[in-house]
Structure formats: structure tokens, C-alpha cells
Amino acid sequence: MTAVIEMPEIATATNTETVASLIGVTKRYANGVVALDGLSFSLRRGEIVALLGPNGAGKSTAVKLMMGLSSPTSGSVGIFGADPRETTARLRTGVMLQVGRAPEMLRVREHINIFRGYYPNPMPYAEIVRAAGLEGIENRFFGEISGGQKQRTLFGLALAGDPDLIFLDEPTVGLDIEARRGMWTQIRSLAARGKTVLLTTHYLEEADALAHRIIVLNKGKVVCEGTPAQVKSMGSGSSGTQQTLKIIRCATTLTAQHLEAMPGVTHVELLGTLTSITSSQPEATLREMLALDQQLHSLEVQSPLLEDAFLALTKNS
Amino acid sequence: MSTASIALSNPSTSGFSRNLRIFATEIRYELLRALRTRAFSLATIGFPAMFYILFGLLMNRGESLNGVLVAKYLLGGYAVFGSLGASIFGIGIGVSMDLSAGWLELKRASPMPPLAYVLSKCCMAIGFSVIIVSVLTLLGISFGNVRLTLAEFGTIAGLAAAGAIPFSCLGLVLAFTVPPSSAGGIANLVYLPMSFCSGLWVPLRFLPHAIQLIAPIMPTYHLAQLMYASLGATAPGTVLNHCLSLFGFTLIMIGIAWIAFRRREQNS
User: Fold this and answer.
1) Do A99 and B21 touch (CB under 8 A)?
2) Can you tell me the distance from the alpha carbon of A32 to that of A55, in angstroms, rounded to the nearest whole number?
3) With an 8 Å Cβ cutoff, are B106 and A99 in contact?
4) Would residue B2 count as lying in a domain?
5) Per-residue confidence band for A9, with pLDDT thresholds at 50, 70 and 90
6) What is the pLDDT of residue A7?
7) Structure pTM?
8) Is the pLDDT of residue A10 over 70?
9) B17 near B108, Cβ under 8 Å?
10) Of A101, A117, A141, the CB nearest to B25
11) How many domains does chain B contain in total?
């Protein structure tokens, strides 16, 4: 069994630094519900991956399998080359879950130190306090701190073991804007230090701002995977091209037919006095429009919203 | 299941001592947490104390039963009652709440050995059982003219502690089978009738014949007989028989708890 311990070291050194992988995973519950249907994806070292999907898409099932809280019906799950239920895998993993109530009569400091005790090389206490923003509440009982402070304490617990892989389930629920930005900064700095972060969130804005890669699940399958920009383009009706789509809005005298004939234009829509043009080559489209219409004004160029892409991708797949 | 789950790959000495430390930490903080939770600690200690004062010290003053003072006899019964309460409420309700809140899931996803969690809860029940039997003994000595040798106290304290083990397993069964919203009600439905019907409040001989017949199916009955015997009172049955009954009950409860837990795991 010593091979299992050595494997992660070899894995990180040789291949594309895959930290965790699901291969052809199907999960069928006892009541017959198929939560995951041949799901495969992997997480690489140092990246922040957001797992998105509507309720019931299989996000939490996938995360539970990776945390070793449940076993797949078929397929395999590997964390650092080991079974996620093994202690060797758990020692390198940190978890933040939606917890309704942690033991209330323990102090924040005690909670953190109990979790630090689970790991042979925990993160220094002071560093956890700083990273999770727990200054000033360390001696308060868990039961008497606010919702946001509870959320930050749970984040601190996920960091306790200085893990290489961190699962964050809805990490910023209940946080105000400032605290949310603060946690984003922390998550980014974790990735910068080579840690891998898997994030599930309902805030698409958060996935957009934070993730290097987004995996959209629906009905237990991956419907789309890519950088936030790629995912947005894929959802904009352009049949899954990898180009970056932009939406150009302006007041122009050019007709819809004329615009549709321009290079890269995929869609034209009239919105009152404004025209909305979706283009896969926004620079070329704009150059031509500006050359042809000297009176063009109220110009705005934007990326398609992740929200629109998300809705389009998960609607009827 | 794709890959077989294999126990800790490298049980090196450092891993072993770390595990020991985790067990000690979990137990210490679980005890501390329970003591700090006043609604729990006051009720768990206060309930048997109050009953003992009422039935053992204020009523039946100076009377004897089965060869010993009523106050001394009932000390055994209420010690069992206290141990049952600490276990059913501490573990039945405590684990049920941890389960529904997702806290148990977070603990399970951590490298903490799962046994550390169960053992810390069990040790908490044992600790409270010893505290309760000590409080009851102090009350008995101070206000009920109870005379107790150190050996007798040691034996009943040991019995109360050991009794917390089968009762803790009963608590686990409750936690894993009863929905959290009704756990409190169900716990009382087990706690109160079981205590009454095994003669912990009022000695069995004063209870209806039907209750005397069903009493031996309850673990509390067997622990109470061991208590009475060690306090110098006459008690039916042999020590071996009572011990085997408690051991059998423990095994059945562990079995049910295990099956219930596995079923939960497969459905979540």
C-alpha cells in the first residue's frame, strides 16, 4: 500500500498535474434517481474551477463523491491518485460546506484548533485568522457570532490543514460585499500558491470573477466547460464556437440586413432606437460600421452575461 | 464501489500518536461543550436530582426496602435514570442535530477518524453519568442519612459509567432513525416510559403486575438490579445474567445504528 502514498508525488511531477478526477462517474441513489450520468472532469493544480448548474444538476453529488462522503455506482473518483475516502487523500483536502449549526458553545479559536489538530502540518493559527478575517471574534462562541462571521469561521476550518485541494460550497452566502471581495482575494491567493479550488456557487458573478474554468452541469452531465469567456460565448447561440462573442450596442442608420452581412455578425436585434449586434469578430465589425456610418453614436461594447449563457445552456439540454 | 476503501495506509507511530491526540481533543471539547450548554447540563443533572430529592429523600423518610434504606435503594435507580438521560439527550438529540445541520458531514470529510466523534459523544455521556451519580450520592449522604462505603460508591459510579455505553448506542439508534424535528419528542417517549417501567422511580414491587413482567426486556432494569445488589439490597437475577443482557442490548443497538447509518449514506 505504500505505492498509494507515493503516487501523488509522481503524479504532480509527471503528468499535467491533475489533482482530482472523476472518470465516467454514474451515481444512482437507492430511490432510482440518477444524479450523475457518466460524468467526467478533472481539476488541475493551481486552478479555480467553478461548478455551476441548476438545482438538482448533480453539483453537490459530484462534490460529495470527491470528498469521499459517498461512493459512485460506477466509474472512479481519484484525489491525488487515491480513493477520496482514504485518510491520505483527506489529509490534503480542505472542505467548506453549508453548515446550519456547528457546536455553538465552542469558541471560534477552539473550533479552528480542533481542526488544525487533524493534520500533521496544519496552517499556523495566526495565518488562518488573518486569511479568514477572524480577528476580534476568536474568543467568541460560535453560537453568538453573525451569519457572515460563521461563514468566515467555516472558511477558516477549510484552511486549517493548509490543504492542496479545497472544496468550497457556496462560500460567500450571507456575506456583505466587502467580506465577499475579501474572500475572493483569499481564494485567488490560494490558487496563486498552487492550491486547487473547486467552488460551487449560485452567484454567477462570483464564478465569472473568480474561476479560471467553469464547468456547467445539467442532469448529471457536463453541458459545457471552459473559461468564463468561452462559456459565455457558447451560450450565446453560436453553436459552441470557441470565439469570444461581444455584444455591440449603438444608435446607427445601418439596416439590419446590411449589418448581418458584415464579418463576424451572428445576430442583430433592434431595441427601440438602439441596435444590438452580436459579433464573433467585434473589432472588424466595429471598424466597418464606423466607416460606413459617420453619425453612429451611443456606442457600447459588452461581453455577453454569464447569466444568459447559463440559462441558454441549461434550458433544454 | 470502484476501489476498495483501505484503512490507513501507513500506520506510522506519528500517525498513531496523532490519532490518539485527536481522540483526546475531541473528548475534551465535547465534554466542555456539553458542560457549557447550560440548558443541557442543568436539565441532565437537575432532573434526576430533583426526582431523587422528591421520591428518595422527602417521601419514605427512614423506611427500608429490600434490606436497605429507601434513600439508598433509590440512589441506584436514579443513577441509572441519570445515565439514561445523559445518553439519550446528549447523543440521541446531539447527533441528530449535527446530522441535520450538516456538521457531521463536515467532520466526516475531514481527516478525523469517525470513531473519534462517536467516542467523544459516548465519553460525554459517561462523564455526565459520573457527575450525576456523585451529585445524587452527596444529596443522599447529606439529607437522607445514606451511609455508603467508598467501595460501594466506586461500584455504582463504575456501573453508571458502564451503563452509559448501551444507552449511548440507544441514543445513536434514535439519532439515525428518527427525523430531527421529532427527535426531542421521541427521546422523551423512550426515556420516561423506560425509566418508569423498569422501576427506576418507584420500585417494581409497587407497580402493576404487567409492568413487572415486561421490565426485564429493558436494559435499564438490568443495570438497576446490578446497582441495587452493589448497594447491599436483595435483587433478582444473577450478575452474569444482567451483564449478558446489557451486552446483548448493546450489540443489537450497534447493529441497528449501523444499518440505519448505511441506509442514510446510500440515500444521501
Assistant:
1) no
2) 18
3) yes
4) no
5) very low
6) 38
7) 0.83
8) no
9) no
10) A117
11) 1
pLDDT at A204 over 90: no
Average pLDDT, chain B: 91
User: So what's the ipTM on this one?
Assistant: 0.88
Query: Is B5 within a domain?
Result: no
- The range of the structural domain enclosing residue B44 comes to 17-267
Contacts of A75 in chain B (CB under 8 A): 2
Q: Does any domain span residue B70?
A: yes
Q: What fold characterizes domain A242-305?
A: Alpha-Beta Plaits (3.30.70)
Each residue's pLDDT tens digit, B200-232: 998 998 999 999 999 999 999 999 999 999 999
- Distance to chain A for B50, nearest Cα, Å: 26
Q: Give B103's contacts in chain A (Cβ within 8 Å).
A: 99-103
Provide the 10 A C-beta neighbour count for residue A186.
17
CA dist B124 and B134 (Å) reads 15
One of 3.20.20.150, 3.40.30.10, 3.40.50.300, 3.40.50.1110 is the CATH number of A2-229, namely: 3.40.50.300
Q: Check B1 against A71: CB less than 8 A apart.
A: yes
